[in-house]
Amino acid sequence: IHRAVQSNLSFRQLLGIRDPLREIMRGLCGGVLTVPPAMALAYATGKIITALSGMPPERQPVMESILMPSTPLPVAVIALILCVTLTPLAEEIMYRGVLVSVLRLRHSTGYAVLLSSVFFSLLHLNLTLLPSLGFVGAAFALAYLKSRSLLTSMAMHAAFNGTNLLLATWP
Predict the structure, then answer these.
(1) Helix (H, G, I), strand (E, B) or coil at 19
(2) Long-range contact list for 72-80, CB < 8 A, 24+ apart?
(3) Alpha carbon of residue 137 to chain centroid
(4) What is the tally of helices (H) and strands (E) in the chain?
(5) pLDDT at site 6
(6) What confidence tens digit (pLDDT) does each residue in 37-63 have?
(7) Helix (H, G, I), strand (E, B), or coil: what is residue 1?
(8) Which helix (H) or strand (E) covers residue 157, if one does?
(9) Could you give the CA distance from residue 163 to residue 171 in angstroms, rounded to a whole number?
(10) Which residues contact 99 (CB under 8 A, 6 or more apart)?
(11) 155 touches 27 (CB < 8 A)
C-alpha cells in the first residue's frame, strides 16, 4: 500500500481488489473459522490468569459496554455496527496494509507477520486476549498476504468481530 499511495492508484487498486465477491467470501469464511481456536486460546489464557491471580479474566471494554443492561439500545447498535465495519476497515489498513507491507521491505514475511500480530494484540489492551488476538492478527496477515487484497482481511476481521459479538449476545 505504501508504494500505491505514491503512484495515484484507484481505491480498488490501492486495496488490491481484483475479484471482490470471491475476496469477501473467503474473508467471511476465514473469519468465522478463526473464532473457535481464538476462543480456545482466550479460555485457556483466562484459566491461567485466574489460577495465578485468583481474579477472573477481564472482558474487553467495548463488549462490556454493549452487554450492559443500562446501555441504551441505539448506543449498543451503533457500537455493534462500528465493531463490524469501521474497526476492521481501519485496523486492516493500518496493520496489514501499512505495517506488514513496510516491514516486508526490510524483513522476512514471517517477521512482518509476527511483529504486526504482536502490535495488533497489544492494541487491544487485554492480557487475557493477548495470545488469542496474536493468533487472530497472524491469521489476518496471512490472509492478506495470500490474497494480496485488504478486502479479504477486512471481511475476515468483520466476520470474526461479528461472530464474537453474536456469540456474546446470544441468550
Answers:
(1) coil
(2) 80/165
(3) 6
(4) 10, 0
(5) 66
(6) 999 999 999 999 999 999 888 877 777
(7) coil
(8) helix 150-169
(9) 14
(10) 112, 115, 116, 119
(11) yes
Distances (CA, A) of 11 to 58, 131, 140: 38, 33, 20
Report d(CA 56, CA 46) in Å as an integer: 7
Instruction: Please tell me the distance from the alpha carbon of residue 125 to that of residue 60, in angstroms, as a whole number.
Output: 8
Give the number of C-alpha atoms closer than 13 A to the C-alpha of residue 98, restricted to the C-beta side.
11
pTM > 0.70: yes or no = yes
* Per-residue cell: 151: 478486502
Query: What is the grid cell recorded at 82?
Result: 462500528
Cα–Cα distances in angstroms (integers) from residue 38 to residues 73, 114, 128, in the given order: 28, 16, 11
Strands, E assignment, 16-122: none
Cβ–Cβ under 8 Å, residues 149 and 25: no
> Pick from 143, 135, 113: which is nearest to 22 by CA?
143
With the CA atoms of 40, 122, 156 and 100 taken in that order, what torsion angle do they form, in degrees rounded to the nearest 10? Answer: -130
Question: What pLDDT score was predicted for residue 8?
Answer: 73
Q: How many residues does the chain have?
A: 171
For residues 108 and 57, the model is more confident at 108
